[in-house]
Amino acid sequence: MNCFEIRERIVDLITGEIESDEKEWMLEHINHCPVCAEDFYFLSQCIDACYSCPDFEENDEYWEEFLVLVHEKITLTKPKNPFPFHILIPVAAGAVGVLALIYLLFLRTAPKEIAQPKVPESNNSDPIYEVYDLTPEEQKEFIKMVNQKYFGE
After folding, report:
1. 86 located within any domain
2. What is the pTM of this model?
């Protein structure tokens, strides 16, 4: 039985108008559920207080009105289920993580090339390296020409 069914039958349990097997189920639930236990003890104290009044006359009309009023109060005061933040927060965090991962893997644009000075490649087509291709006699001749032009020798 769930709490709603128990609350509908608590008055019947207190007044003894239910079968013994159903009574066992209800009492077991009341022992494990603090909300239903609170309702049970409160209603049993109310009914005991009604019986202890000296001018109390038990009649069917009184109990019918009492049961209707109690039933209305129980159905009107159903427990509110709080918003499940304990579920929503981890789900939202997981969704944000998945979206970030999708962005990083698939949607992010490639980084632009960084402007760096171009380092000339060392290739042998540069005229300065042609000196090394000369024979030793041609090298001496070349050095002599450079000395005459720049140093006047």
Report:
1. no
2. 0.37
Please indicate, yes or no, if residue 8 is contained in any of the structural domains: yes
- pLDDT tens for 79-94 read 666 777 788 889 999 9
Structure tokens at 119: 């380092």
What is the C-alpha separation between 33 and 3, in angstroms, rounded? 8
Which residues make Cβ contacts (< 8 Å) with residue 3, sequence separation at least 6?
A: 29, 33, 35, 36, 79
Q: Which domain holds residue 19?
A: 3-76
3-state helix, strand, coil in the chain (%, to 5): 70, 0, 30
CA 4, CA 15: separation in Å to the nearest integer? 19
